[in-house]
Design a protein that fits this description.
heterodimer, A: mainly beta, 11 strands, 54% strand, B: mainly beta, four-stranded antiparallel beta sheet, 0% helix, 55% strand
Amino acid sequence: DQQVKQNSPSLSVQEGRISILNCDYTNSMFDYFLWYKKYPAEGPTFLISISSIKDKNEDGRFTVFLNKSAKHLSLHIVPSQPGDSAVYFCAALRTRRALTFGSGTRLQVQP
Amino acid sequence: DTEVTQTPKHLVMGMTNKKSLKCEQHMGHRAMYWYKQKAKKPPELMFVYSYEKLSINESVPSRFSPECPNSSLLNLHLHALQPEDSALYLCASSQDWTGGLNYGYTFGSGTRLTVV
């Protein structure tokens, strides 16, 4: 039972444009949602998180939106840069449980 | 020090070997985790240690044996593995059991394990 889903395995965007990565979840008990970025041969790097009681969190070029009624969240990257090219994992967290990851979306930002 | 250090980075072992993976952090984090990641798949949780005690074992086969000797160190002992156990093994830590949400988990770079 995959509780966190990223239905787009890949996304290609032009440099300077907006990248939108989507994530859906099924468990309404999740308390927090996080986005991680992963380069090959490296561990995931934390990007941004959002509490389940909020609907938006912004950090520089990265903004995460949460729609609880739709059980959907998205990560917006504006403007996209070639260095943003990586695999992005959506993850969810419940109190006293470990992170549950989505399957990832490979973002390619074209110069 | 804001890193999680994993050694070795690469490991090739036979099915009859015994080896250990090591993970170390000096951030004062009290929760540590082992994840396994196969190619093109998300990381999957194996074990969680909270305050040096095993809190979660996600039905991992006994050929994987975790150990937390102290609050900074986490080991994963491997014995009689199968070729399908070949994967990237990731260690992570967090401030506490709820994850230290402002910063998320800190992951190491992983150990690429190949079982032959």
